[in-house]
Amino acid sequence: MSGKPRLTYLNGRGRMEPIRWLLAAAGVEFEEVFLQTKEQYDKLIKDGVLLFQQVPLVEIDGMKMVQTRAILSYIAGKYNLYGKDLKERALIDMYVEGISDLMQMILMFPFSPPDAKEKNLDSIKERATNRYFPVFEKVLKQHGQDFLVGNKFSWADVQLIEAILAVEEKIPAVLSGFPQLQAFKTKMSNMPTIKKFLQPGSPRKPPPDDHYVETVLKVFKR
């Protein structure tokens, strides 16, 4: 092996995208293996590679890691993106969990039946503007620093910029009432490692399309 982390998932965002974001933000190059058939997925299960018979799978430091949250916290700890003490880590965990709740809605959106898409989009907008983004607007304002926790770039900042951009793809004006988040987005997007990840040709995946949805349903069908 090259020593680079090796990521096994589909060729799309899904539950692997926050892992790609975090590795890229830490300046870590990685390799990817894309599942395209149910047979490939079943072989991983049969070979005992997937602890809970689920992907994402990340091979890093001699471990075969599954469970998105465990993978993310390991990467955050390894690359010093997890705060300086237990209190900072607790704040990062709280912010990450909140952002993950919003991202779960975005993750499931492409799988909505056509007649539910508009309603689900309204739900995302309502949750983003009334529940989640006001929290981070307030945190940034009260904290008075460039970053969410301490005055140091962390996993929470990476998750938030990913969420902001994902919501903006669906609701372009979503940040109109959030000046702190607008400034945060500009600042984060210009950080060298993130700027590189946002360029065409990077490992960042495009918004899910019909082909991605079909592949997901085909690979994971029971």
- Please bin the fraction of helical residues: 55-70%
Tally of separate helices? 9
CATH fold field value of the largest domain: Glutathione S-transferase Yfyf (Class Pi), Chain A, domain 2
Biggest sheet descriptor: 4 strands, mixed
The N- to C-terminal Cα distance equals 32 Å
CATH architecture of the largest domain, by name, is Up-down Bundle
Which stretches are low in confidence, meaning pLDDT under 50 for 5 or more residues running? none
**What Rg, in angstroms, do the CA atoms define?**
18 Å
Spell the H/E element sequence: EHEHEEHHHHHHH
How is the largest sheet built, in terms of strand order? 2-1-3-4
The CATH class of the largest domain is Mainly Alpha
Quaternary structure type: single chain
Shape descriptor: globular
Task: Provide the residue-averaged pLDDT.
Answer: 94
Query: How many strand elements?
Result: 4
InterPro entries: Glutathione-S-Trfase_C-like, Glutathione-S-Trfase_C_sf, Glutathione_S-Trfase, Glutathione_S-Trfase_N, GST_alpha, GST_C, GST_superfamily, Thioredoxin-like_sf
Keywords: Transferase
Organism: Neopipo cinnamomea
GO molecular function, one term: glutathione transferase activity
